[in-house]
Amino acid sequence: MAPPPQTLIDSPSLFVFVVIITVLSVYLIRLNKLMSGTPDEVRKLSPKRWTKDLLLETYKALETKPITTSSYAQRIPPKLDRRYIVTGGSGKRLVGGYIVLQLLERGQPPESIRIVDFRAPNRDDMAHGPARTVDFVQTDISSAESTNNAFTKPWDPKRSHLPLTVFHTAAVIVPSDRYKLEHGFCEAVNVGGTQHVVDAARRVGADVFVSTTSASISIRPVRLWMAPWRLWSGWPPNFWQVLDDKDFSLPLRKHQEFYANYPASKAAAERIVCDSHSKTFRTGCIRPANGVYGNPTDNTVGGPLSMGDCPTWTSRIVQSFVHGANVALAHLDFEAVLASPKSVSSSQAGRPFVITDPNPPIMYDDLYFLLETLAITPFRTIALQPVAPLLVSYIIEWYTLLLIKWPIFRRLLPPLAGDVKHLKPAIFSICTHLVASNSVASRPVSQGGLGFSGVFTTLEGMTQEIIEWNRVHQAVAGRDHVIYQTSVALADEIQRATATTTTA
């Protein structure tokens, strides 16, 4: 007689295994649902979705009458008789290029402006007119010598006597690395580079210094892994956050309390700038909201467009974005305040201001719908369940740290290349709900603000970027994608170049 079939009860080890797998599966399914959702309090901040009619109407209006520096010239603060050094002004970092264009629009002579950057300007809107004649000095700000050489280069004799403003926008964006083992590059450029720029600026007599930092400084790491019973009682801690400057009044947080090395480096750089404030060197910082866009080289609009097929798990995520032109205007607003020596004791001086577009935050679904509806090149999203890339991200991070910590493995295993190397757990802290406000910066100067007002709404700014994308691609046979380099890809290139220089 055949023995009866074995059951789970007859095999305790098999029973325990099945229970563990079941509990783990239920846990991951619940976590995946939360990561794909939008809390009610966040949804109330972004209640309206973009419609096809709204997108087409906006496209038609901006195609006929685009928003340009000349169309908002009256919004740009009046011309000052000064010289200007703009680090990062080539345009790859968006903000620096818009600062140069706005300075020229308000009447600053090209010979009174100097661009200091790793790369020469290559934006279409800087390839003609006065912008083409602005002086450029190729510079590696991680090198004190290179920075000093750029700042001490002689000026046009007719301008050399003028007071000097420095707009420091140069930085590298590496949003995925979070361990100190990987911190060297951000530390060298964003922290060391800022110190070199501050030192060089003071050495040549600059009296106004405005730096671009990042609203990501205030982001706390999202805590996705928590006790199962807590997972059913609410959203993961820090799953939605307000981007503000309250942290600035507190001691600088520990490295592990930032979501990644990038915001930790920007926070340290911000303290360098603000702590340097004095009567003869008046300083301040602008914190752009999480995603800066406004040129096909950006990561927000240009990045997905260049991909065509865009894998994503963020469709229901709500975030604030900011156009590069709006951020540039905030820098000029800040300069207008700091230009007066009396501002040394003002409430604006020696502190940061958060800047975002003048509208409620949007959902990533809005952005993707805009790309699908308006771009003439093919675009589609490939929906991913967020838990899957989250689990893979730990493997990628482990592999990366393995190669860094034990050099012997670098001889045996290939390094990761392309976008996949940036899929690490830190990314999931900026793929959460992040909301910013202009409420402080928009206050009148008499009330401690900058008097800031943006000229692009997110709808207008993203639509106009699509118009420019379409204009370029209409001239390309077969509608092949023009290859643009995003700021994250540029950071990879700079890291390779500096590593080669160091080892040469």
Automatic annotation (TrEMBL):
Keyword field: Membrane, Oxidoreductase, Transmembrane, Transmembrane helix
Parts of the chain that traverse the membrane: 12-29
Gene Ontology biological process terms from the UniProt entry: ergosterol biosynthetic process
Species of provenance: Lasiosphaeria hispida
Pfam families: 3Beta_HSD
InterPro entries noted in UniProt: 3Beta_OHSteriod_DH/Estase (IPR002225), NAD(P)-bd_dom_sf (IPR036291), NAD(P)_dehydrat-like (IPR050425)
The family this protein is said to belong to: Belongs to the NAD(P)-dependent epimerase/dehydratase family. Dihydroflavonol-4-reductase subfamily.
Protein name per Swiss-Prot or TrEMBL: 3-beta hydroxysteroid dehydrogenase/isomerase domain-containing protein
Record domain 3-beta hydroxysteroid dehydrogenase/isomerase: where: 85-217, 255-371
GO cellular component: endoplasmic reticulum
Gene Ontology molecular function terms on file: 3-beta-hydroxysteroid dehydrogenase [NAD(P)+]/C4-decarboxylase activity
Taxonomic lineage of the native organism: Eukaryota, Fungi, Dikarya, Ascomycota, Pezizomycotina
